[in-house]
NADPH:quinone reductase (Paractinoplanes atraurantiacus), 320 residues
Amino acid sequence: MRAIVLTSPGPVEHLEIRDLPMPTPKLGEVRIRVKAFGINRSELHLRLGYAENARFPIVPGIEAVGVVDEAPGTDLSPGQQVVAMMGGMGRSFDGGYAEYTVVPRRQVIPFQSSLPWETVGAVPETLQTAYGSLTVGLDLRPGQTLLIRGGTSALGYATAALARSMGATVLATTRQPGRLGELTADHALLDDGRIAPQVRALYPEGVDAALELVGTPTLPDTLAATRVHGTVCFAGMLSNQWTVPDFYPTGYIPSGVRLTGYSGDATSLPPAVLQDSLDRIAAGTLDLGPVTVYPFERIRDVHRDVEDNKVSGKVVVLVP
């Protein structure tokens, strides 16, 4: 099979397309014929050397969509449509940047859809994180206000769509003036590093909930935009900065504002939620944001464009 191998952390030239032996699934594992895979920020972090406990060389990719090829000792059958994600994919064992990938059954979710693979490929990890951030991280309720810091990211678009379908009012930010019109939110805000005054001009007491996707550089300002007893969920690192030096909670977190975080895996996304979301996308009643599609052979261009923030929304690679 053909696979994309990251030989070691470094520039995009460390991503190489190679011929590798076909992986053999053990009992309880699923071999998937990959049709498409989404690109995630964590794979950029892996290439830049920010990933802990990663082995090299490695086939990256924390998610993939395709059909079951073999699944010994499981309830899945060849030909079933499935998504796979997380659980060490692309870090501790070879992931989705390949024609075939083998993953444990617990990381696989079956579904049925006539959507094109490039559309399905944009959904799994983004939906899992958006759904989990809203339900587990923020416990968002109908009628509440939600601030999304990093609104033109794939996760930002998806979270806005889900939150609005839940009956929330959404405020979303972008750092690029030309992308303000792309935000699918009730209030689009230009982020110059300090948006709390803009938020409080709209909602003087602050928003009920906020999703931090940019990272630690903007987190204090996001906290300042949130009301007493409101919640900020840290779930993204578009800035590639995720630690707070000399963290002093009492001085850092405004009095009464709650700070939490979210990260999940395949078991965090209920199969019914995945199926319902795909059905709604097919019906035109749910839009998780723009999708940019690249061919397998252009993986280096993919990583360059993601690193340089040249694309808005989700990036998907089609596997021939």
